[in-house]
Amino acid sequence: MQTRIITLDEFIIQRQNDFPFASGDLSALLRDIGLAAKVINREVNKAGLADILGVHGSQNVHGEEVKKLDVFSNDMMINALRNSGQCSGVASEELEEFIYFTDEHNANAEYVVIMDPLDGSSNIDVNISIGTIFSIYRRVTRSRNCVQEDFLQKGINQVAGGYIIYGSSTMMVYTTGNGVNGFTLDPSIGEFCLSHPNIKIPSKGNIYSINQGYRLKFSEGVNQYIRYCQADIPEKNKKPFPLRYIGSMVADIHRNLIKGGIFMYPAMQGVPNGKLRLMYECNPMAYLVEQAGGKATNGKQRILLLSPEHLHQTSPIFIGSSEMVEMVMKFENEYSG
Ligand code: AHG
After folding, report:
1. Residue 117 CB neighbours (<10 A)
2. For residues 243 and 206, what is the distance between their CA atoms, to the nearest angstrom?
3. For a pocket test of ligand 1, which of 218, 246, 249 has the largest count of ligand atoms closer than 8 A to its C-beta?
4. pLDDT tens readout for residues 74-115
5. DSSP character for 47?
6. Does one domain contain both 140 and 224?
7. Does residue 137 share a domain with residue 169?
8. 84 Cα–ligand 1 center, Å
9. Distance, CA 115 to ligand 1 centroid (Å)?
10. Residues with CB under 6 A from ligand 1
11. Quick check: pTM over 0.90?
């Protein structure tokens, strides 16, 4: 058992010391993301009080405009990244175009950040877990300000990726390519503390997560896999798998990461690329789940090897316990061709 509390900041510094030539820039960036997460967490926790403290979009008692939580989270993350001095630009699911920082210390910074500042935000009003998802990439150009090419990289190039889940407790889970670690926010001291070191996703798992309401639009392979999960296909000793679907990707993937399972948002009739965003949602989650020993594919190839064409493109995704991802691919190959 761990005997001493290790805070996120301590952990990041410890890890930095493992790499003799590390400059500390990435560490500073991760710490600043952690800081922004605490402020977003504070606001998310107050969401139920919106009617009392001021409905989003209205003015609060001080005459200030109350921002919608997703807008607030976006602004908070951008401010933190700008202040870090280690980030030359940000692409956000909330913004049409990426932004670049023009001040001296940021413009020359080595990293860009891609993020979904508040994923699952349609769940805020009903008190369901939501999250912030982030990816960090090293710039590939040397121009003074970062350009589109710096963002449009394959997921495999990420130097860090992770999420913050605002749930029954708030956690930050991330990887820098050397395993996955989870930190729980202790509200009494206001620190993220290492609570889930070296997370490994069970390779078997049995939870399946998919919006089954769209069943009629799924491929034959996906539908046959659903039948397999439900033990509707004769197989010796097969028990039905539990279906769990929150409709909040961070929450669904976090649960499956810990307990073992598969999350699917496949292609659908009329929606060949699914709903979820490659750069903001699929890539960071794929990097993290692979680092935990799981798999992530779009049905044909590893998510991390997809070449992005534009920032907001979507991709089908099958992600989670390796044996479950392999099994759904078997059904896809057999029935969907
Ligand atoms: P939003 O941010 O608009 O609430 O979307 C959430 C995303 C993702 O988090 C979730 O897994 C998925 O959309 C749910 O989509 P469906 O409602 O179509 O199942």
Report:
1. 28
2. 9
3. 249
4. 999 999 999 989 999 999 999 999 999 999 888 889 999 999
5. G
6. no
7. yes
8. 30
9. 15
10. 119-123, 211, 247-249, 275
11. yes
